[in-house]
Amino acid sequence: MSDSQPWFENLRKPHPFIHQTRIDLPQKDRIVNIAPFPEAWTSSTSYSSIWSSVNLFDVELGERLVTETVDAVEWNTMINKFKTALAVAGEQNIYIIWPFSSTRPIQIVLPEVSKPKHRLQPKAKANIAWALSPDKPYRPLLIFTWDRQIYILDAYTGLVEGCLRGHGGEITSIVVHPSAANMFCTTSRDLTSRIYDLTRPPNQKPNNPHQPPLKTPSLAGPAHGLDVADEGTGIGRCVLVLRGNRSGGHKGEVLGAAFHSALPVIATCGMDRTVKIWHIPHFSKRTEQRLLQEDKPLFSSTMIHKARILSVSWLTGDILLTHSASSKVSPASVRATSLESDLDSPEDEPGTCTLWKWLSSSRFFPPGWNEDIYNRQQRLRGFGSNHASNCLLMIISTFIQQFSSASFRILANYHFPAQPSQYTIHVLSGCTRGPFLLFLYSGSRFLTLVNVSLFKPCPPQPRWWPENGKMDPVMKKHMSEEDGQLRGWNIELDDQDSGRLETCAMLAGGRLIIAGGTEGSLWFWVDKS
Fold first, then answer.
1. Which of 189-193, 254-258, 370-374, 431-435 has the lowest mean pLDDT?
2. Cis bond leading into 213, ω under 30°?
3. Is the model more confident about 222 or about 355?
4. Cα separation of 290 and 292, whole Å?
5. CA separation for the pair 176, 18 (Å, rounded)
6. Model confidence at 120, in pLDDT bands (50, 70, 90)?
7. I need a surface site. Which of 52, 55, 247, 522 has the fewest CB within 10 A?
C-alpha cells in the first residue's frame, strides 16, 4: 500500500480520532441504544427526498405530497434545532440531548414492566428511532419500543403522540424507511415483523381474514400476526404483517430488519439463521383500511450464516451486509468431518460478518417496473431453491465459506475476534469515504472501525482429495490463515477512564464516533484531520 493513501484506505496507518468529551447522564442506567438525528434530513433541499419512495406504497399520499410545498423557514428552523440532537435509550429512561449546544435535554421515564418469567429470556430493551409524518412535517417524532409497546413522541416536547400495541412478543428492533419517513417496521420475538404508517389512525376493531375451513373471520390475536381489538391511541397504524411459522416465514424470533431505499422490499433476519427479503405491496385504500399479510418472501436462505443473524443492512441496491453471533460446534460434528479433525477448531466458532449480493433483484424489478404506479404488479413470488433440505448439502455448506446459488452470491466473509459475548454493530453507508462498520462487544473498553470497501473477495471453494476425502493442503493452509479475521482501527478509552462500552454510532460522514456505556456515560471521538 502506498503512503500517499488516506488513512481509511490503509490499515497500516493510525486512525485520526481523538477523544473530545464525555457526558454523564443524570441517571446512571446502562445505555442500550443511540439514535443520531438522520443526516439525510439536515439539508435545506432534503424535504422532497424524505418522501421520494412514498408512492411505492401509498399512491394517494404520494399524489398529495407532490402538490404540497415546503415552508423553507419552518423547515430550516427545525433542521437547525435537531441536526446535532441525539436520542439515547437507557434501561429506565429516554433522553433527547444536544451534546454540542446549551439546549436543555429532555428526559422521558420508561414505564415499569414486570420482569419476564422465563429465565432464559433477556430483560426488555428499549429500541429507538427518528421518524417524520407529512401531516406535521416540521415536528420530528421519536419512536421507541418497550417490551411489546410502541410509543410515538413529539421531539419538541417529549409528549406522547401515539401509543400502539400489536405484537404478541417482545419487540427486538425498530427501523424507519430512509425515503418514506412516515413508515417504520418493528421486529419481534413472536416470529413476525409489522410495518406501520404514521399518517393513519390506529385500528379500533379487528378485520381479520377467514381461516379455512371456517367461513367467519379469525379470532386469533397479535401473537399470530393478526389484528387486535384495540390497536391503541393517537397516530400510527399497522398496515402489513410479515408472518412467521407459515410457508416461508421466520421459524424463530426476528432480530433485525432493513428497508431498501428505492425498491418496495424489506430484508429481515433472525434466530432461525435465515435472511429473508420481502415484497411490500401497495397498502390497501384508506377507505378500506385492511391489514395486509405476507408469509412468502422473495428470497430466503439459511446458507449465509451458521448461527442466529443479529443484523442486516443494505449497502447498495443489491448488496447487503449481515452479521451473526458465535456458533456452537458439537463434539459429534467435529468427529464426523475430516476438515474439523484436521484443523484445531475451538469449541465455539466466532460470529461472522458477510457481504453478499442478491442476484434476483432485476428479475423481480426489471427496467420500467414502476413506470405505471397504478397498474404495477402487486403479487410477487420467490422460490425455495435456497432452502437446504438435503443433509449432505448442509454438511458441505458448514465448511465452505463461499456458497453461491441462483439468487445470491457471497462476496466477502470475515469472522469477529473471539469474545464471550455477541457484538453490537453500526453501519454507516453513503459517505464519500466508503461504507463503515463500527462494532464492539458488551462490556469492552474499545470499539473497532472497519472500512467495508477494503474487504477482499472470498477464496475459491475448497478442493478435496478424491482418494481420502481430505482437503487440498494449499486450500487448508489458506483457510487457516489469519486474514479471515475482521480487521480495522481500534479506538480505546483513556487509561484513567474506568467505563465500559455497550453501544455505538457514527455520523457526520464518518468523522464523529459516539459510544454509550454501562453507567450512563457517552464518549465522543472526533476526526482531528
1. 370-374
2. yes
3. 355
4. 6
5. 31
6. very low
7. 247
CA pseudo-torsion sign 306, 308, 314, 318: positive
Grid coordinates belonging to 455: 474487504
The Cα 361–Cα 265 span in angstroms is 10
Mean pLDDT of the chain: 82
DSSP assignment of 238-294 equals EEEEE--SSTTS-SS-EEEEEE-SSSSEEEEEETTS-EEEEE--PPPPTTT-PPEEE
Q: Is residue 115 part of a domain?
A: no
Q: What is the pLDDT of residue 118?
A: 41
Q: Which residues pair with 160 in a beta bridge?
A: 153
Residue 26 in grid coordinates: 443524570
Question: Average pLDDT of 321-340?
Answer: 63
Return the CATH number at 306: 2.40.128.630
Does the structure show a pLDDT above 50 at 271? yes
Report the pLDDT value the prediction gives residue 498, as an integer from 0 to 100. Answer: 86
- Reply yes or no on whether the pLDDT at 114 is more than 70: no
User: In a 3-state reduction of DSSP, which class is residue 93?
Assistant: strand
**389 grid coordinates:** 433440505
Domain extent for 280? 43-82+124-327+354-386
Question: What tens digit of pLDDT does each residue of 457-489 get?
Answer: 877 655 444 445 555 555 454 444 446 889 999
**How far, in Å, CA of 363 to CA of 49, rounded?**
26
Task: Give the CA angle between residues 31, 35, 37 to the nearest 5°.
Answer: 145
Secondary structure letter of residue 51 according to DSSP? T
Does residue 35 fall inside a structural domain? no
> How many C-alpha atoms does 529 have within 13 Å on its Cβ side?
9
Q: Which residue has the cell 417529549?
A: 158
Burial 144-156 (b: 16+ CB within 10 A, else e): bbbbbbbbbbbbe
What is the number of structural domains in the chain? 1
Lowest-confidence pick of 122-136, 392-406, 477-491? 392-406
Say if 242 falls within a structural domain: yes
CA–CA separation, 427 vs 416, rounded Å?
15
Distance of alpha carbon 143 from the chain centroid: 15
Task: Evaluate whether residue 88 is within a structural domain.
Answer: no
Distance CA 239, CA 223 (A): 16
β-strands 106-109, 93-97 pairing:
antiparallel
| Sequence-separated (6 or more) residues with CB below 8 Å from residue 2 | 10
